[in-house]
Predict the structure.
Amino acid sequence: MMTQLARYLLVASVIAAVLAAMVPLAVAQEPRVVVYSSAGAEIGEELAAAFMKRNQNIKVESIYAGTGVVWTRTRAEAGRPQGDLCMCGGSENFDINYDLLESYKSQQDADIPADFKDAKAPPRYYGMSLPIQVIIVNSKLVQRRDYPRGWKDLADPRWKGKIIWANPRLSASAYAQLFQLIKIGGWDLVKGVLANAIITPSSGLAYQGVADGEFLLGMTGEGNVYDLRAKGYPVDVIYPVEGTGLRFDAIGLIKGGPNPRSGRLFYEFTLSRDAHMLYVKSGSRRSVRPDVPTPPGMPSTSRIPLVPYDAVKAGKDRGINLIIFDELLAKK
């Protein structure tokens, strides 16, 4: 005859077994995708909302941070990945962290030009937008006749303390700016700009600082200037006369991500024309897709002085360039 204790243990074990069986069922009923992003919450939430509208059973969890922070986290988790996708800065960042990415040929591979995706097949990343780097100026505080014309003008002593620049170690766009300054004028130009600039840890603080009138000039992606102007801020965009590099931001699947099916669905969506139209409408971003128009008010790339941007060299030289920059910053 079963004792009361034995009966209790039996019931408890049955309940535990039922609960254990329910856990994976609950997870299966609530699939999710985890996105690591440095693209900004505004466009990130637009993409997530549009995706979840089409895939109502999948929840998008977006984690936002600077590009350097995102990739550091992704590498730290390599043994047990917690994210499914990285939407994190220019292609040079993806080349540096190539081993963390999954090879996958998108159904929309043919819609993405060869210049804007991983050259290897199957690709480990695809381009999303073209973050052309420009000079932002507060048009209320600087008269048009006094505007700088290019990168070299930022080293003019008259701008001392009036320029804000994000830290290239923490910001992918700021590193792209540093790389272009080195190419145009070497480290002497970098020293001159650094002597005039206040360094901030966030690229967002850089362009917002100019918009708010705390600084006269800054460096940023062109889309940020057009967004601020649309919101009523007194800002102008300057395309440097020396030229600015045509580089692209990318997205890729994290190798071994916890939600591979949902991750690929979200990946395919971000590469679609509909998603790229969101980049244009919500973030004033130029799409890498030829079938997506230029954002309203922006000049065509044919009217912008462009120069080649060697993303492979930018990635290869990143370590030594940041060491030298840190040394110069410490002496500032």
Observations:
- The mean pLDDT is 90.
- The chain has two domains: 28-129+249-298, 133-245+303-331.
- Residues 280 and 295 are 5 Å apart (CA to CA).
- The first strand starts at residue 32 and ends at 37.
